[in-house]
Design goal:
With 154 residues, the chain is an alpha+beta fold. It is built from six helices and four strands. Helix 1 (16-23) packs across helix 2.
């Protein structure tokens, strides 16, 4: 899958055509994407067009052509609209992550547990994790204190 890093935005952009080709069994991913864009526009996803950018990406012939690209957030939204068995694992994952975030809104301690588990899976030691969590808490306290002082001075 072709991708480009945007230094200004600090985001990756991915070729939508490549994603369509991977997730569908179509012989013509450009046509599939064209039809999907029309369908999305008809269904009211016009704002999606505001987030699709054309970037020059190298094609199979070695030349660079303007290609419809999207950042990860927009790409995941597009994947949700693709009726394909290959897209289903992404859709289930998005539903799971959304559900977990809703649970964290109800119980913020779940977010802290998730962070600890993620660091543990990445191989960090318990000592490192504890220091990191304390550092985050101290930074949050300082940020809150700075906001409070700014409000008092204004």
């Amino acid at each position: 899958m072709r991708s480009l890093w945007n230094d200004d935005e600090q985001k990756w952009y991915f070729s939508i055509i490549d994603v369509v080709e991977i997730l569908t069994d179509t012989d013509n991913p450009r046509r599939y994407w064209s039809d999907l864009k029309r369908k999305l526009k008809k269904e009211g996803f016009i704002q999606l067009y505001d987030f699709i950018v054309q970037l020059k990406m190298e094609a199979s012939d070695g030349k660079k052509y303007l290609t419809d690209c999207a950042n990860a957030e927009v790409l995941l939204r597009i994947i949700q609209t693709i009726p394909s068995q290959k897209a289903e694992p992404f859709k289930r994952w998005l539903a799971q992550v959304g559900y977990e975030r809703l649970e964290e809104i109800e119980n913020p301690e779940l977010a802290t547990q998730r962070i600890r588990e993620t660091y543990k899976m990445k191989g960090y030691s318990d000592d490192w994790i504890e220091k990191r969590m304390r550092g985050i808490a101290v930074r949050d306290e300082l940020t809150d204190e700075t906001k409070h002082i700014s409000e008092l001075l204004c």
